[in-house]
Design a protein that fits this description.
16 strands, three-stranded antiparallel β-sheet, four-stranded mixed β-sheet, alpha+beta
Length: 488
């Protein structure tokens, strides 16, 4: 068999490669997404004080530290048997909404967007943020940079740092905001709503009005009919900070709805010999391999999944766009993986609207933002919707609050099986008779890029070394030198 390697894969967080195997006729026999790093974060957290976890787990990733910080903080609430006051919950959700806007902006414009804004088969040197800037112009680039700058400044104002916040505590947060800060947060939130609305218009103009892009989105190459998972509030509307976990089937019907503390009853994990990343699946359906359908326990937890499991968005502008997406693409559920980019922008708008709602709440400046724990710590589970999927932190301690067990089910880990399936199907749909081009291989990468995967979050090399291989070739393609680091 002939092997084609995409190594390293690009525009993601973390490291990985794709190996594609062709049969004698040049057709794709198989394709593997390989993550060559060992996940070890759970193990080296054992033995530490539980209170360290919001700050420690934020260091898992520099892209979404706020997600781990918040999941860990909620786990400590449960662990120490303490309920935060209402102001603390609102402050946390405000902080988290600001983070969501900042994070989704990054993915659309810098990671996923180049494939559509510049073009999926554009030269490699142009498929990046600089290519996006050249295509859309400096005025739009300035809007993007301002949105990210504003978001990070507010994250610092509220959470203590632009990256790796140190704010969450069991029972609440370490500090609140005053009226002057609240007004500034609300003002910038209204600008964020305008930015999100503008981004959706850009998507409509550049993508949805392009017949080739619409054909790509709705074609069979990027379709997988799996279960979907996401957090919803009491009205079955999307919520990123708190709620129940809802799972719907490939037909859109509700399969399960459970409290995050019950996750072990619904989710199991398995391993495969070609990846250090685990493969979660729905325990009550079972593992049937890397296949679609109602009999397969594979599920997705993505922005599109969160839309599929929700009945509506909880804010008006986002809800209108939510219904527009389903009307345009033929109703619920949507199984077109590339439609995840549209869903992500809907979530961007929802997060911005929710940011304004919370900033305008009179209770948000209350000085009552922490309840001091008084009970002996035991076991705690905290859950939020990370941008990349449902994120669960589970801690067990001794009576002194020293961690004896840690389990993390990370957003990207949920999506590992469908990402692997998407990569294989894209390769099989795009590569025929052994004909391969750089543009086609990028379109294979688009299959995983829609998930916005964070392999830095989901896996970790122990003891912190990154395998790397660099091959230097002359103009004719002959190997001149091979440099390796931490490879067998």
């Amino acid at each position: 068999m002939k092997r084609i390697s995409i190594d390293p894969i690009t525009r993601l967080e973390g490291h990985g490669k794709i190996d594609i195997f062709l049969d004698d006729q040049g057709e794709v026999a198989n394709a593997y997404l390989q993550i060559p790093e060992l996940r070890g974060f759970e193990r080296f957290c054992v033995g530490r004080p539980a209170e360290d976890m919001p700050n420690l787990t934020a260091r898992i990733c520099g892209v979404c530290p706020e997600a781990h910080h918040m999941a860990a903080t909620k786990a400590l609430d449960d662990l120490f048997h303490v309920t935060p006051p209402p102001a603390a919950k609102k402050l946390r959700e405000l902080f988290y909404s600001i983070f969501y806007v900042t994070d989704h902006t990054t993915h659309f414009y810098a990671l996923g967007g180049p494939d559509f804004v510049v073009g999926p088969q554009a030269p490699r040197a142009e498929r990046n943020i600089l290519g996006v800037v050249k295509k859309v112009g400096m005025d739009i680039a300035s809007k993007v940079l301002k949105m990210r700058r504003d978001g990070h400044e507010l994250i610092k104002m509220i959470g203590g740092r632009r990256v790796h916040p140190n704010w969450g505590l069991p029972g609440g947060v370490s500090k609140g905001i005053d009226e002057e800060q609240r007004r500034e947060i609300e003002r910038l939130g209204r600008e964020a709503v305008e930015f999100a609305t503008f981004s959706l218009k850009l998507f409509h103009d550049l993508v949805l009005k392009n017949t080739e892009y619409v054909k790509l989105i709705t074609g069979d190459v990027y379709v997988h009919k799996t279960y979907n998972m996401g957090m919803v509030d009491a009205r079955n509307c999307t919520n990123f900070y708190d709620g129940m976990i809802r799972v719907t089937g490939p037909d859109g019907k509700e399969h399960a709805k459970y409290h995050p503390s019950q996750y072990r009853e619904y989710v199991a994990e398995r391993v495969e010999p070609w990846s250090y990343l685990k493969f979660p699946y729905l325990k009550k359906v079972g593992w049937k391999g890397f296949v679609d359908g109602v009999d397969s326990g594979i599920y997705k937890a993505t922005p599109l999944s969160r839309c599929n499991v929700a009945d509506a968005m909880a804010t008006p502008l986002a809800d209108a766009e939510f219904h527009r997406m389903y009307e345009t693409l033929g109703g619920k559920p949507i199984h077109h993986t590339l439609a995840t980019h549209w869903a992500r922008l809907i979530e961007l708008l929802y997060a911005a609207e929710r940011w304004v709602e919370l900033a305008a709440d009179s209770e948000i400046t209350s000085k009552d933002y922490r309840t001091i724990p008084t009970e002996t710590p035991t076991e705690g589970i905290g859950c939020v919707e990370a941008p990349r999927g449902t994120l669960t932190h589970h801690y067990v301690t001794d009576s002194r609050g020293i961690l004896t067990k840690v389990n993390l089910v990370v957003g990207t880990t949920n999506n590992n099986a469908p990402i692997s399936m998407s990569v294989k199907k894209a390769a099989q749909g795009l590569i025929h008779q052994g004909k391969v081009s750089e543009g086609l291989l990028n379109m294979v990468e688009m299959a995983f890029r829609a998930y916005d995967p964070c392999f830095g979050c989901a896996t970790h090399n122990l003891p912190g070394q990154m395998p790397l291989e660099v091959t230097i070739r002359d103009p004719e393609g002959n190997v001149l030198q091979r440099l390796t680091q931490h490879l067998a």
